[in-house]
Structures are given as structure tokens and as C-alpha cells.
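Hi R.,

Here's the chain you asked about this morning:
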Amino acid sequence: MQASSLLLPILRSPFQGELLAWLYLHPGVEASLADLARRFGVSQATVSREADRLAQAGLVLERRLGIVRLLRANLDTVVTRPLTDLLAVTYGPMAIITDALMPIEHITGAYIYGSWAARYRGEPGPVPGDVDVVVIGAPDADDLYEAAATAERRLAREVNITAVPESAWQSPAGNPFLESVRTRPLVKLDLTTGVI
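And the predicted structure, written out as C-alpha cells:
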């Protein structure tokens, strides 16, 4: 990943944004360094270094359970509400949309695409005004509508969810929409692990 965050340039790195967003958008949930490393595909040492910085700044709380180090958002600071709001509109789509889609049956995969995915993947540009999601499978349309509405309320921006059959996703030739989506940046949503 790039050295600094394009979604929220005041952050040192995209990982810092991902970690803070996950912790603040799952208030009260504790996660071990190993679980966080696995979730974000980074080393446990990377999580530990970031946890040290965030704990020293008072943004996260930590406790030990034997040799396991657990982290959670510090919800008792003056910056909690504004920081949570800022994280929701920048790094929040991954956590919030994943949470909204997880209970829906018949989804085999989901990706964020469009301008949010482009910023996340390091392409410069303005802050995205909406979030585009492609869902693979045969989910109920009403369930997707509810998931989009739930995510929109938390993200304070439009969320567009498009469902495509597995066969169309696997063989997008002849489908201009899918051909375009597949050639641009994508951010895969992990619908298997849920809240740690």
C-alpha cells in the first residue's frame, strides 16, 4: 500500500485508517492483534506498532488476557464522536457495508468499485460522493435494498448495490458494465469472518 492515505490525508497510512475505522465502527468489541493482522493482511508486528501509537494517543484501549493483547476503541474521549463520523465517511464503507451484507443469503462475493475503490487503491482524486458495490450471487432484492439503506444512514452518502449472477461475474465478456467494473480498482469485502 501507499505511504499515506488518500481517503483521509491527515492519516499516516491506509492501514491506520482501516484499523481505526474497524475499531470505532464496532464500538465495545475487543479484537486481538492476531485477529486484526489476519483481517487486514498485515503482520502482527505492524498491528502492534500501530496499537502502541494509538494507545499512547488515547484513541484505543488495550488489555491483556494472558499473552494475548486485546484492543478496542476508547469511547470516552472528546474526539470519539467526530472521529467516528470522519472514519465512517472515509474508511467506513468496508466495515459498514460488510456488516450490512453479511446476514443476506445467496451472496458468493462482494466488491466495492468506482471512485471509493480507486481512492482506496491509491488513485488521487476528490473524496467520493457515493459508494458503489457489486454483489455476486442471487440475493433477495429487498434484502439488498435494506442493506443499502442501512449503510447509507451510517455513511451519510449514497450506496449503490448491484447484484450480478455468479456466471456473469465469472464470464463478463459482452457485458459492458461488468467489463468496466472488472478493469478498474476493486476492494473485496470479506463476508466470511464478520465481527471478530
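The chain has two domains: 14-90, 92-188.

Let me know if you need anything else.
M.
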